[in-house]
């Protein structure tokens, strides 16, 4: 135990975990950095003690936060399990990607949200309808420009398999339909090809190319894994399900947030197998998802609704698979869940005691101005242009909130005893120097 704050304890392991990810925020000598970080953790725990005593968040709200955080973290953990972020990239892949950049392609595309529409567009192209006219007819979702003109695109810049086909096709050849990602289909043609401007030297953009290649490979792996999951769990969209959601949205005048009815729970949008038992995704489930942070679908398109329903069920399958693999028992996931919940509780208390209590006056701004320019010969306060005054107002607000936070947590120290194991703090080694360049800063 490194410290005790009221009924809470701060362990040496917890402290070092924070230090490893927050080293960049404490750019001082190790002894000073350790004490500053520990004081911040103590202030956090003081506020958590106060929030708990006040009962700021009801158990139902905390449980909803915890459930949402668990789902989000498990989906991320599952994605990492399917496709690790450190996928190897070979020298040959880097050289090829660099070489592709030396050619540009004038690309025109037709976008479709589902394969039937893409097939229909291709059939009409083969029947002789001009590409330009069909692009204007089909590109109505805003996903691509209405005329389909993407301009000059360097090799390697488009998602696969569109990029490879773009580089390998003949001028004017109809490409596709090609499935890109989970819910997009493209028909394309290369109108012209030309040498690109000389790219920077390979050593200067090598790391950038590695990340692009790695990201492309990771996306492909995840997409194949999702296709395998949907097959393994027998995901099937219910005929008429998307139309039911479409009609439900129309009944609410384009807004699906209307009051749920008993019939919503009986209206099946998709079916799948969950742990050896049949399961369904209903209209009620969809309405609940729409009330959360889920991206809203395009209600004007039935194919887009089908893809959205499929994406929500795929998320459920990822969660089922994550728990089957016991990823929810990972200590990092458990810690992440608690961090999310504690963050929401802290924000609630901060808004109540700090943010809502601070007002910035002209006198405050003058004092902040003098504090920041002391010893210089600045222009008069009254001569500041409006944009600088707004910046100064923001800085003044930040300063006053920091002062109020320190006052508030100092007062809490008399309410919740704080004890620090000074001998242990001195022995702990500050790990910031061990961070590699570019390591995440929490």
From TrEMBL:
Q: Name one GO molecular function term.
A: peptidyl-prolyl cis-trans isomerase activity
Reply yes or no: does the keyword rRNA processing apply. no
Give UniProt keywords alphabetically: Isomerase, Rotamase
Q: Outline the extent of the PpiC domain.
A: 102-191
What InterPro entries has UniProt attached to this entry? PPIase_dom_sf (IPR046357), PPIase_PpiC (IPR000297), PrsA_foldase (IPR050245), Trigger_fact/SurA_dom_sf (IPR027304)
Top-level taxon of the source organism: Bacteria
Tell whether Oxidoreductase is among the UniProt keywords: no
What is the protein name for this chain? PpiC domain-containing protein
Q: What is the lineage of its organism?
A: Bacteria, Candidatus Eiseniibacteriota
């Amino acid at each position: 135990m490194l410290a005790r704050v009221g009924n809470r304890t701060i362990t040496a392991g917890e402290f070092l975990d924070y230090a490893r990810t927050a080293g960049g925020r404490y750019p001082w000598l190790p002894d000073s950095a350790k004490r500053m970080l520990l004081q911040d953790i103590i202030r956090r725990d003081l506020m958590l003690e106060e929030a708990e005593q006040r009962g700021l968040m009801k158990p139902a709200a905390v449980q909803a936060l915890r459930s949402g955080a668990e789902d989000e973290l498990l989906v991320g953990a599952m994605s990492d399990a399917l496709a690790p972020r450190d996928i190897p990239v070979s020298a040959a892949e880097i050289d090829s990607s660099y070489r592709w950049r030396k050619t540009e392609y004038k690309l025109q595309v037709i976008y479709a949200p589902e394969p039937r529409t893409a097939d229909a567009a291709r059939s009409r192209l083969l029947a002789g309808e001009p590409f330009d006219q069909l692009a204007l007819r089909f590109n109505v979702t805003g996903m691509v420009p209405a005329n389909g003109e993407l301009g000059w695109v360097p090799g390697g810049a488009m998602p696969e398999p569109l990029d490879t086909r773009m580089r390998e096709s003949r001028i004017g050849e109809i490409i596709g339909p090609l499935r890109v990602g989970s819910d997009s289909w493209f028909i394309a043609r290369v109108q012209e090809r030309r040498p690109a401007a000389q790219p920077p030297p390979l050593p200067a953009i090598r790391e950038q190319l590695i990340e692009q290649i790695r990201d492309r490979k990771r996306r492909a792996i995840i997409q194949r894994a999702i296709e395998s999951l949907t097959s393994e769990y027998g995901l099937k969209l219910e005929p008429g399900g998307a139309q039911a959601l479409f009609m439900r949205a129309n009944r609410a005048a384009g807004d699906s947030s209307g009051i749920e009815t008993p019939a919503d729970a009986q209206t099946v949008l998709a079916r799948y197998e969950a742990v050896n038992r049949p399961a369904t995704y209903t209209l009620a489930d969809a309405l609940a998802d729409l009330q959360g942070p889920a991206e809203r679908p395009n209600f004007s398109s039935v194919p887009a609704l089908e893809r959205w329903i499929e994406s929500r069920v795929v998320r459920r399958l990822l969660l089922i698979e994550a728990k089957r693999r016991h990823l929810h028992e990972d200590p990092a996931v458990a810690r992440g869940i608690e961090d999310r919940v504690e963050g929401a509780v802290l924000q609630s208390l901060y808004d109540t005691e700090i943010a809502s209590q601070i007002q910035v006056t002209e006198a405050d701004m003058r004092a902040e101005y003098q504090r920041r320019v002391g010893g210089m010969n600045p222009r008069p306060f009254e001569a500041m242009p409006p944009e600088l005054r707004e910046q100064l107002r923001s800085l003044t607000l930040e300063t006053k909130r920091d002062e109020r936070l320190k006052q508030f947590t100092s007062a809490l120290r008399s309410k919740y005893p704080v004890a620090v194991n000074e001998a242990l703090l001195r022995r702990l080694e500050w790990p910031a120097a061990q961070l590699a360049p570019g390591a995440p800063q929490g």
